[in-house]
Amino acid sequence: MAEPVAMMKGDAASNQRPFYAQFTPEQLKEALRRMCLIRRFEEGAEEAYMRGLIHGTMHLSIGQEASAVGSTMALRKTDYITSTHRGHGHCIGKGADPKLMFAEFFGKEEGYCRGRGGSMHIADVESGNLGANGIVAGGIPIAVGAALAIKKQKRDDVALCFFGDGATNEGAFHEALNMASIWKLPVIFVCENNKYGMSVSTERSMAVANVADRASAYNMPGVIVDGNRIEEVAEAVLTAIARAREGQGPTLVECKTYRTRGHSRSDRNRYRTKEEIEEWKLRDPIGHFETELVANGIATADEVAAIFAASDAEIAAGLIFAQNGTDPSPNEVTRDVYTPGIPA
Amino acid sequence: MNAPIRELTYAQAIQEALATAMEADERVFIMGEDIGVYGGAFQVTGDLVHRFGEDRVMDTPISELGAAGIAVGAALAGSRPILEFQFSDFATLAMEQIVNQAAKMRFMLGGKVSVPLVMRLPSGSGTGAAAQHSQSLEAWLAHVPGLKVVQPSTPHDAKGLLLAAIDDPDPVMVFEHKLLYKMKGEVPEKAYRIPIGKAVVRREGRHVTIVATSIMVHRALEAAEVLAGEGIEAEVIDLRTLRPLDTATIIESVKKTTRLACVYEGVKTLGIGAEISALIAESEAFDYLDAPILRLGGVDSPIPYNPTLEKAAVPQTPGIIEQVRNLVKGRI
Amino acid sequence: MPVEVILPKVDMDMATGKIAKWHVKEGDAVRKGALLFEIETDKAAMEIDAPGDGIIRNITAAEGAVVPVGQTVALIYQDGEAASAPVAAEPLPPVKPITPAPRPDAEQTAVLPAASASGRFPATPLARSLAKQGGITLENIAGSGPRGRIAAIDVHGVLAKPTAPQHGDEGGFEVIPLDGMRRTIAQRLTLSKQTIPHFYLTVNCDLTRLSEIREILNAQAPRDAQKLPVWKLSINDFIIKAMASALELVPDANVTWADEAIHKYHSCDVGVAVAVEGGLFTPVVRAAETKSLSQISEEMKDLATRARARKLLPSEYQGGTTTISNLGMYGIEQFTAIINPPHATILAVGAGMERFVPVNGLPVLRTQMTCTLACDHRAVDGALGAQLLAAFRNFIEEPALMLA
């Protein structure tokens, strides 16, 4: 575990962040558990991939767990999220069961998408996760559409939309933010700015310094937070959710973060230095949050250790469950292209 | 006395379907560019905004991709969006959402969701609008599993197919022909549906089957009338739906007539006629063929501006008459 | 370079030839002029000689194969010259006899007989299935479509004809494949009967004088070394001579029809129908008006012999303006014949029959021969035909006139 950065340590008694009052101790420990589960899930998936048990590719979010959990911990089950190709964390954050995610990775009928989607389309519709998306920015207008439906249906739910820094260079981002704003839709745009769109840095690909700077073009708040600090993410998203539920429209939250793994399993890290990666590893969001919880008296070291142990056990069981899953029948390759039983 | 036949234009029939659906189901709403107070580029939505309000007849910014994605998201979240593209050509801006998202969402998610949306696409040439406002791209979208594609050819079908499309749990692309908007025809007042995936025999005949779509149905029927005077009896099938294709109706007709001509406005090469030809070649109807298969489609060219060239770029009635006559007389 | 052996054109209108027999085999040494193979054309078998010395290789057309004119069928290599892979275009497969259609329930491999260079008949799928159902092959169906494509209507046309049943295995007959000669007879006579406006003139010729003179001439024939008479004139020899003489006397009838013109000949060439096994030939006696009866007799003997052996040269059965068809030896009293195109006339000759004829009011027994002249009205009108036939009768009834 990395040491917490001094400036973030704070004085628990007098200088506690609102975050610790906004959530109950149980919620906070659950947040740590989910971050831990995400980390272990991705490490387990990575190992299974390297052993040749999982085919295709996958995009790991190791190092980005704070933005995933910090953004989703205040959501209700009836709220929606749309996710990205780097979406394992979002999925677990919204409440997915890792063993069913593993089953999907192994291409089994028990998987969330019955083996048809894999890592890049992982979804848990029952939990309100409308799905990861293989198209950069593909989920942004979809989230806006979901928010439009929420508004039309006069619900007070919200749609939270994850995307990366690269997506903000897509037209869909700009069209979607504009419409969300003119129609004051209950949507929260959460940009996980991990500095690189695959290999090209934000400095080389964006005309502005921050993604949040783009919010002003669409007349919505643009908030920058340390994406490796769950309390910063959660506080900003909580504010945005409140705005959305009150009908004040969308907010753009930019989480500055970093993926310590490559873009995908085939990345050779030629576009960044080892030093940069090591520096960000020192800012590990899980280590930070663990320390914070103990320092704030919310969890004991033993409780934290138990959370980690439970995560390990859950991941190990999940992998076994997935490997023993049911392979889809080739006879059913076209199943679910269309909805069956349509009145002709 | 029988009730007088009520006639509406194709555009009015669509508008009636939209109004009927919105009245019956509050989840239904329509969105598009200039469909509100302007009434739509072809006046299809007309004054619906005054009846249903701006929340249900939504003007969008000129953001085809974003609007298409919003339609997908709204459909996923329980609404029934109907998106009007001002011209079907502009759907090219929204291909990502149509092809990657709307079409695949249900499949990618293992059948856990449906995407009940409708996209209306005014298409076709003949208005002098030139290459970027005259295309017939229905075969593009019909090539994508997960989408349904219909092409109403009459006011009656325009209403019935649109209502069926709105009911449908999957994304349906409705290709409307711009030259048909003013066509009048009988349209019942009740909320009837025309099943998606079913073709209709518009005229029976025994010498040749003409499979036609959209406006070409009318040209094929005109041709059939002339040919009937020469003793050639053409059977004209209005395909109505490109995907899913009504293979049985086509195969049965070809088995009866032993000859097949496909008439469609989209570009001939790799178009719907190629699909129907291959369908027959692969089917039991192959052994009944007594002549080569004839395809009459758009030429391999963008639609030109000059009116003479514009007409020359897509099948016209005299050409259909001549070619079908040659087909039946064994000259091809 | 090896010398190419091609299938030569040996007949007018010849597009293909059937290899009837090879007289050499792969690897044989041949000398220029040696017999290589025989081909069967529409009319005759032709012997084809080696065009050079060397070793025969690369025979690409088997016996029975139908080969387009000009196609290489073998190569002759010089000593030491390396034989290459066959260079000839693909030969046509051997002509398949028409076989009874297989029973519908029988396992079968479809065999499509040759019709084009590709070996396939262009036909629509419907035509194919109709032909299969009807138990007929596509081989003899004329396609009405572009490039000869057979459509359903063509098959219906064949199926509708009340021809013999096709189910040879049920009807108690055998199917005899058509050879080139049979096809030619069928085509040419069908063309003739369908396109030539025939009319017919009949006369009875008294053979009294002819019989007397023939008897004298045959009795007086010189003897050769074996003491055999050097000639034995037949009545037919007189008929040939009489017809040639009549044509000389009525030259307007010595013609052929050539669509855009009438060809009028200087020489009186008379074709004579010779029955051979499986058909007939009409070798032509050239300038018969100038030849003696014995010359004609000798020439006819040779032509008839070689016709029966199918060894006639095309030049020996082409040309002429008329044909004599004599069925008298079968006791036929009278018949009409079909003109052999492009001839203008054909004379159908019956048997010599004893009949009572009135002479000075009293019945007298005479031998008469009934002859019917068929004329192509396009070239020979009624009066002209009558003049020709009258002249012929005069020469038959008074053969001495032929000496004039």
What does it look like?
The complex is a heterotrimer of chains A (344), B (332) and C (404). Chain A has 344 residues and is α/β, with parallel strands linked by helices. Chain A is built from 13 helices and 7 strands. In chain A, strands 1-2-3-7-6 form a 5-stranded parallel sheet, with helices on both faces. Chain A has a two-stranded antiparallel ribbon with strand order 4-5. The longest helix of chain A is centred in the first third of the chain and has 26 residues. The termini of chain A are far apart. Helix content of chain B is 35%, strand content 19%. Chain C has a 6-stranded mixed sheet with strand order 9-18-17-16-12-15. In chain C, a hairpin with a 4-residue loop joins strand 10 and strand 11. About 9% of the residues of chain C have low confidence.
CA(first)-CA(last) distance of chain A: 61 Å
Instruction: Give the strand order, joined by hyphens, for the main sheet of chain B.
Output: 3-2-4-5-7-6-12
Our estimate of the beta-strand percent of chain A is 5-15%
User: What is the CATH C level class of chain A, in words?
Assistant: Alpha Beta
Structural class of chain B: alpha/beta
Unreliable parts of chain A: 1-12
Topology of helices and strands:
The complex is a heterotrimer of chains A (344), B (332) and C (404).
Chain A: H1 6-9, H2 19-22, H3 25-50, H4 65-72, E1 80-82, H5 88-93, H6 98-105, H7 139-152, E2 159-164, H8 171-182, E3 187-193, E4 196-197, E5 200-201, H9 202-205, E6 222-226, H10 230-245, E7 251-256, H11 274-281, H12 285-295, H13 301-323
Parallel strand pairs in A: 1-2, 2-3, 3-7, 6-7
Antiparallel strand pairs in A: 4-5
Helix pairs in contact in A: 3-4, 3-12, 3-13, 4-10, 6-13, 7-8
Chain B: E1 7-9, H1 10-24, E2 28-32, H2 48-52, E3 57-59, H3 64-76, E4 80-84, H4 95-102, H5 105-108, E5 118-123, H6 138-142, E6 148-150, H7 155-167, E7 172-177, E8 184-186, E9 200-203, E10 208-212, H8 215-228, E11 234-238, E12 241-243, H9 247-257, E13 260-267, H10 272-282, E14 294-298, H11 307-312, H12 317-328
Parallel strand pairs in B: 2-3, 2-4, 4-5, 5-7, 6-7, 10-11, 10-13, 13-14
Antiparallel strand pairs in B: 1-8, 6-12, 9-11
Chain C: E1 3-6, E2 16-22, E3 29-30, E4 35-40, E5 45-49, E6 54-57, E7 66-68, E8 72-77, H1 125-134, H2 152-160, H3 168-171, H4 180-195, E9 198-206, H5 208-219, H6 235-249, E10 255-257, E11 262-264, E12 270-272, E13 274-276, E14 279-281, E15 284-285, H7 293-308, H8 314-317, E16 322-326, E17 345-359, E18 362-376, H9 382-397
Parallel strand pairs in C: 12-16, 16-17
Antiparallel strand pairs in C: 1-8, 2-4, 2-7, 3-6, 4-5, 6-8, 9-18, 10-11, 12-15, 13-14, 17-18
Helix pairs in contact in C: 1-2, 6-7, 6-9
